[in-house]
TrEMBL record:
Organism encoding this protein: Pseudoalteromonas luteoviolacea CPMOR-1
Protein name per the record: Phage portal protein
């Protein structure tokens, strides 16, 4: 995570080192977040820690700023 956050690496590279495809991981994370939301469960702690708000995303997955 530190390499990604500091711009020294990418999710694609780091997940490839673990034998994972980053697109598949991202899609799975999105599905799990939506499933938790549908079941009335809180978001995972990493979502809260990152300040991510799925309800505040546009259709392209870009965070929208509140006006």
């Amino acid at each position: 995570i530190l390499r990604i956050e500091s711009g020294l690496s990418t999710y694609e590279k780091e997940l490839a080192l673990m034998g994972e495809d980053y697109i598949e991981v991202f899609e799975q994370q999105a599905r799990e977040i939506e499933e938790r939301k549908a079941k009335g469960l809180p978001p995972p702690s990493w979502v809260l820690a990152m300040g991510f708000d799925a309800a505040n995303q546009d259709d392209g997955g870009t965070q929208q700023n509140a006006a």
